[in-house]
Amino acid sequence: MRIQEFEYFAPKTATEACSFLSQFKGHVKLMAGGTDLLVSMKQKIKTSERVIGLKGISDLSYIRQTGPDLSIGSMTRIGTLERSDIINSRLPFLADAARSVASPNLRNAGTIGGNICLDTRCCYYNKSDSFRNLIGPCLKLAGEVCHVASKSKKCFAVSQGDTIPVLIALGTKVAIQSLDGKRTIPLEDLYRDDGKDYLTIGPEEMITEISIPGPKPYSGGSYRKLRARKATDFAWVSVSVHITLGKGICEDIRIVLGSVGSSPIRVVKAEEVVRGKKITDDLLEEAAELASKQAKPVANMVKVLPSYRKEMARVITIQAAREALARAR
């Protein structure tokens, strides 16, 4: 597969990158590590005559600790997160999520900003151009039909970024920059439940920083990912659980599912069942059952049934919750 020709821009600052975004007003693509965009362009899933490469913006690559909180530049490599002493000591389950991304070579190229903005995926969308020509374009590619649900006008492509559930479970916020200035939002507000239009960020904006609140005493988290193979594959279903204990009870808990919807799913009802109570196996079983009910996988992954993914959402939620609880003590 040959990639189309495009004009390449190499800004040295975030402000310069935003200037290009403003100049071309949606008719340009941002490229961080390129591990997703370049593949998509080769498959003719995405096309653009212009690409803004961000690798020259050195100011966006860092991990900083300010008091208890952590700040991570959006161009920080996934491999850097995986190996970081700060991340491994303070937030080991974020390091676990980073370690589960693709292969070592791709982790050393891909960035945290790219991972949280990762395009949604579907077995009818992420295919060669020749395959799509046989069946016709889907909704995500400006077609008129969803090949997963032919009567639906909604795209069901799946959110599969590995770091996303962990960062949401941690209460992360993201800084978004444009020529008009900066704004900060909770990471979970970055996503909408629409596989085609999955990000709330505007075409003239870019993410510059990820801010993570410092972990409280007696808190712990976990990330679990089910996939076909232990290396390279995207998740069939993933879950992150973060628990904070206080005086023998659950002071706070966050449960976030990935790869079972077009956006990450915060399982609020399950959290409410556990919060303020002493955690028991029965309580975790009840929370996991609620997580399974909220998972809405569809038949857009190869060689795995939606019913299996839904059941495994229950199973790995229990596993993740037990590991988070063990780390919190």
Question: How would you describe the overall organization of this protein?
Answer:
- The protein has twelve helices and twelve strands.
- With 329 residues, it is of the alpha+beta class.
- Strands 4-5-8-6-7 form a five-stranded antiparallel β-sheet. Strands 9-10-11-12 form a four-stranded antiparallel β-sheet, with helices on both faces. A three-stranded parallel β-sheet has the order 1-3-2, covered by helices on one side.
- Among the domains are: 58-117 and 158-212, Uridine Diphospho-n-acetylenolpyruvylglucosamine Reductase, domain 3; 219-328, Enolase-like, domain 1 (2-Layer Sandwich).
- Helix content is 32%, strand content 21%.
- Strand 4 and strand 5 (69-73) form a beta hairpin.
Produce the secondary structure layout.
Layout: E1 7-9, H1 14-24, E2 29-31, H2 37-42, E3 50-53, E4 63-66, E5 69-73, H3 78-83, H4 85-90, H5 92-99, H6 104-107, H7 112-116, H8 129-135, H9 163-169, E6 173-178, E7 181-186, E8 206-212, E9 219-226, E10 237-246, E11 249-258, E12 265-266, H10 268-274, H11 281-294, H12 306-328
Parallel strand pairs: 1-3, 2-3
Antiparallel strand pairs: 4-5, 5-8, 6-7, 6-8, 9-10, 10-11, 11-12
Helix pairs in contact: 10-11, 11-12
